[in-house]
Records
---
Amino acid sequence: MNIRKYKIAIPSMLTSISILAGIMAIFICIDGTRENYSLACWLIIMAAVIDGLDGKVARLTRTSSEFGIQFDSIADVITFGAAATAVLFRSIFLDRVGSNPIFYVFPVIFLICGAVRLARFNITATTGKKTGFTGLPIPTAAGALMSLLLIFTWMDNAGNGAWLAAWLAHKGIAVPDDLKLRITIGYLVVVSFLMVSLVKYPTSFGFFFNDIRGHKIRSFINALLVVILFIYPSVTFFLVSVFYIAYGFATSTQDPVQDNGETEKLTIDVQ
């Protein structure tokens, strides 16, 4: 029995699951049942988590390949580009395009910036250990927007034990749809710009776990995040994504990127 043949299939299977999650999210949008939009958001967030694992699995099993790079990028376009755009459009923009066609533009901006990000990534990518990213990765951008949509749903569901939603309902405070729209557009524009920017981001694994030994405070924060994740998952994903996005922007501001006309070539940990 050639064990390596099976090892090679493991990263691709993870990538295939990511594609499946994206396709299912698109199917949910086609169905048009608003109650299921949260499920579509969770499918894309789940795919983003898997995307962070497939490359590491490929490196651990020593099955990194050029095929894996291309397959992973195709999966990203489907799940974090097309599927995330479909969820955004159906949940936020669809009801407004009749009155103003400009609302077609915003989700398309996200999709195009994501495609540009992936194209730039493909021409600089090599197999090996990942050291970081130039520009916000599209899985993170899509996950951040999906977590924002989940926050809106969470705040609207006062009967589901959400203390903030219950408190707002008790005070007679509601987040109007127009405010949700403006927040979504603002956040969308920011993450779209960051995807095609030269802002440097660490890997998600390195961001949370590198040099954690001996750092009791960081270990405590990570443990606390895990606990909160089980209690308020949507809130946790939203806050973590905002912090990660802000961290990259803040550190790049302190240490400006010297643009010499080329994007820095990074080694990446992919299939």
---
Amino acid sequence: MNNHTLKIAAPIAILILGVAAAFILASARRAPEREQKPVLGPLVEVIIAQPTAVATVVRGHGEVRAKTTVEVVPQVAGKVISMHPGLVAGGHFRAHEPLLTIEPRDYELAVERALAAVARADVSVEREQAEAEVALQEWEAIHPGEEPSSGLVVREPQVRQAKAELAAAQADLAVARLGLERTTITLPFDGIVESETIDLGQYVTIGKKLATVYGTAVAEVRVPLAERELAWFRVPSRPGIKGPSATVIANFGGVTQKWSGQVVRIEARVDTTSRMIPVVIAVPNPFKTRGNDIPLLPGTFVKVEIAGYNLEGVVAVPRHAIHEGSVVWTIEGEKLKIVPVTTVRTDLDTTYITKGLEPGDRVVISQLDAVTDGMTVRAVETTPVTSDAETPSNPPIPEQDLHSKISDSSLLIEMTEASENTSAPALSPPPPLPPSFFFPPSFSLTEPGSFA
């Protein structure tokens, strides 16, 4: 091997040895061990399931209307000579106060003429009776012991005619007095004038509308409700039966005012447009206010809360804790569990569960984007949910018989209930299914205010 070949082979050998050494060192180096970090699930809020008793509230909206509305129409004609100071739009009047007086002179003269006619007829009766007595005496003198052969002999037709004329004269007198009485227009209730078209000195005719007034003793609120809502409170089935209490709420310029009321009936037919059933709430003394409060005026749009049945043994959870209609998420240990439940009612932001949860279960109330049964989560307990209906805002009904202030002319629908023994058929719409149809035996229904 010459020197030239050695010079070429030596660098190549060194390079090969270096690559081999690097490969051996790289193969011998051990990869660093990765640190194992614990897997943390999402943080969720939970509440503890606790069965409780709940007073349900059926909510709706409606418009206030007067229970009694009357058009003031004169029954006699004449010139108006006096008017009640309250006979203006918005004016108040008391029962039996004269609202207006029509010139009575013509009717006073009519009474005097009728009195004179009665006096003449009375004299005519006395004269005919005297003549009949004379005729009878003459007959007995000529025919002793014999009965008159005819009533004509003793002037019986003439006596009857005179008495009939007296009765007619007395009737004319009653009509004349009635006309005189009608020159003063009064009403049998306290009220407010809604509108009027009358002035002092104006000549009015029979049947002309002079004003529209409404009574202030009772107002009504017509509240359309879905048929399913009627299963949650007792609708009076006939006059004289007290319905559940209700609270009527109005907002005037940011100030909330409340009135106590009572369910008195449902109307005679279902609304064909909305398929809702109108429930009527009666509010006594709607104009009885405190301080600067505004009275419950007809036409006011109001909220209504009706005291419903009491639910016992239900679990109240936020509405958003219910998923896919009938599923909640619970936590066992650190694992999420998907649990099907049975709900009985949703009220505003609260849903009531009757089946599927046990006391002490931790119910997830947080929202998660993706959920799988058994996934790891971290729980943070929060304040238990407060039922929207635990404390009804309904103030008590005043100590009075509301039906005594409400006329019986309004139609009440007969709705047969299991607690009432009545065979009267129900008018349309048919009553909703009884509460027992909707509610499983795991809880019970009671009347408002009857918690154990």
---
Amino acid sequence: MSVIQTESLTKRYPRVTALDRLTVDIGPGVTGLVGANGAGKSTLIKILLGLAPASDGTATVLGRNAAHEGGAIREQVGYMPEHDCLPPDVSATEFVVHMARMSGLPRTSARERTADTLRHVGLYEERYRPMGGYSTGMKQRVKLAQALVHDPKLVLLDEPTNGLDPAGRDEMLGLIRRIHAEFGISVLVTSHLLGELERISDHVVVIDGGKLLRAQSIAGFTEATASLAVEVTDSDTHPDGTRALLDALAARGLTATAGTGHIVHIDAPEPAPAAGPGPEAAQEAVQDVVHDAVRDVVADLGLGLIRMEQRRHRIAEVFQDGREEVRS
């Protein structure tokens, strides 16, 4: 079942096209929407909530048409905006209760849900303090609480870690992951920080300049490559262990390149066609040969082997590759 669907969704402004024929199909779970500032992330959220009209194309949220059923969508969806306008003289309890009532909850239910939600986001002990005295991290938690208080089926989180220090980011990312794991609420979270989305998302949608670069599961983005990452230490005999390893591998006919620090990337050769094992088994056999060759070379050179592992794609690499493909 799709949670969000767009078909050729386009949003034009007089001087810029914010979304350009964007077609995506987002299922349940935690989905990261990644793109640089100005990529069209916030514009997409406004259209999905029925707060801004599209110039062309369609968008549906939880099976409802965003162009005509915005009110019904907002009853079932929580929204955490990037920028806040929290009233400084109001307590978190008063504010979240008000937002719960605005979402249609009766007074008693609103107060009960508010207490539970503020406890979940870690603000229960501070719930009666005026929000003007809150830190940035606490304000972000209040925004998250008001998005969750009416028990939505989906929450849209726009740059939820904005302005947070590393510890605050880790805590916020943990909360986001728990939203789906513990409560079954689907999440669409935007960020321009690729590493954050890689940590918490099941799927990632990458956009740039309003265009779709790629949409795939995290497992697909970070799949193992045929490249081997090897990290070695220097030795008295070989003060530059990385260079010695590169030269020795080249002498054995292996293609290797220097990475950062003392890391060497080794490309496994393509397996020869054979009538016996399938392609996966053949590739594994080749990788075993490369592993053995690397261990032998490192031992012969007297270098210390820190680690040897299959290299995995990172989202940042895929994002950069996608941008280069679009430009070409």
---
Amino acid sequence: MDVESKVIEIVTREQHLPPGTVKRNSTFTELGIDSLDGVNILFALEEEFKIDIPDAVAQNMKSVAQVVDGLTRVLEGKDISDLVAIAKSGSPAASH
């Protein structure tokens, strides 16, 4: 299963949403995800992918697309320090 599908599966499961509700372009606001929900999703993602997501990055992620792009970069061993600024600006994550 690819990163995007797994992220969507985890968000759907953690939020108890009907299948098909979560899309790549879904924002956390649209999905009703608050900061506590975000922490639970973060823990589930870290456990699933066996990684640590830096707090500064995680706190500023506001959409499924940002999470997918960030996780993909982490899993590929790429630098993600720029994702903090990108997440704060609300723009999609930079291309790989």
